[in-house]
């Protein structure tokens, strides 16, 4: 009897010790504005992926698992925008990403010469007039992916999460740093 208790405690000790190695869920944020049709579609797509089989045409599939944070009517912070810019920059691109990617075609949007030249300027402009910001911004913080104002980009993020779930992409391949040797 004592031996069984000892083995149980030992197994619990080791499972606790290695619990930090468990894979965490993807962290998805959507910066959402309820008056934006693409934002409404993206939010519905994300919520359906959590509650219904994914992909939708495959009834035997399980829903996706990820943590969804909905940030309503607030743009990302300047620090978040800096990170998002690195996610939307094409690989091997030497050109800095354009801040205009966050501006909508709304009539109140500034013209080319009047556009903010910093992420702080974009955030300030979006806080003053949400119509000039391109909603939604959906970010997969763990996967390093983002979509700005584009429902198809949200589908691509969900597809990448599905591929990872279904073992079509190994975790090691997803988390490889992009650098000199990649």
UniProtKB/TrEMBL annotation:
One GO cellular component, as annotated: mitochondrion
A Pfam family of this chain: DUF1687
Cellular compartments annotated: Mitochondrion
Keywords recorded for this protein, A-Z: Mitochondrion, Oxidoreductase, Transit peptide
Keyword set includes Mitochondrion: yes
A Gene Ontology molecular function term of the record: oxidoreductase activity
Superkingdom of the organism of origin: Eukaryota
Family: Belongs to the FMP46 family.
Function: Putative mitochondrial redox protein which could be involved in the reduction of small toxic molecules.
PANTHER family listed in its UniProt record: REDOX PROTEIN FMP46, MITOCHONDRIAL-RELATED (PTHR28071:SF1)
Protein name: Thioredoxin-like protein
Source taxonomy: Eukaryota, Fungi, Dikarya, Basidiomycota, Agaricomycotina
